[in-house]
Amino acid sequence: DFVMTQSPDSLAVSLGERATIRCKSSQSVLYSSNNMNHLSWYQQKPGQPPKLLIYWASTRESGVPDRFSGSGSGTDFTLTISSLQAEDVAVYYCQQYYSSPYTFGQGTRLEIK
Amino acid sequence: QVYLVESGGGLVKPGGSLRLSCAASGFTFNDYYMIWIRQAPGKGLEWLSYISGSGDTISYADSVKGRFTISRDNAKNSVYLQMDSLTAEDTAVYYCARAAFMIRRVMAYWGQGTLVTVSS
Fold first, then answer.
1. What is the dihedral of CA B87, B89, B90, B94, to 10 degrees?
2. Cys-Cys crosslink for A54: which of A41, A79, B7, B45, Cβ 3.0 to 4.6 Å?
3. pLDDT score at B95
């Protein structure tokens, strides 16, 4: 199985500052047939279901603010929030959808400093 | 808008069974893969299973293979998860999700979840 490891486990960032969350896959999620990284990011606020933020590693889902961006390829990926807002307090998960089982990272808890 | 409403959760004894349902609306149901995911209390997310729009393609995580069965009724716009031989490790909130358009393994919409508690 693919093991997805996120860092850090928790993060405190001041309002308006940049937040960076990393995700490392135990194997490459770059699919040669379409040259796409099968990696998505989800945001889960307290008491709510997860929400899709980014897929194909860097494509923002419709309606997601452009302060959220994804980057990376192969085994190393990053979710960046360019200017943290209060409503961004949540747990963030990466997930690979390259190979079943479609495993998630353990989550990164993002708080306001 | 897309709506997904799970039901059927509750308290069940170890070794027991439960059938979860997910009622969908706001989209052409049989065009989309549907997915079940769970989250144990205070823990992360675990992908469980998906089913294609026609129902002819199904996949399971090893942790539930042979115990859980996913199915759908396109006439009722519903997807189901039959859970047998439950153990305490199956205690979790169970979410159903709709796949993204043309990306069957990305969960674009989620329900609010239903809690399953396995305890004697």
1. 170
2. A41
3. 98
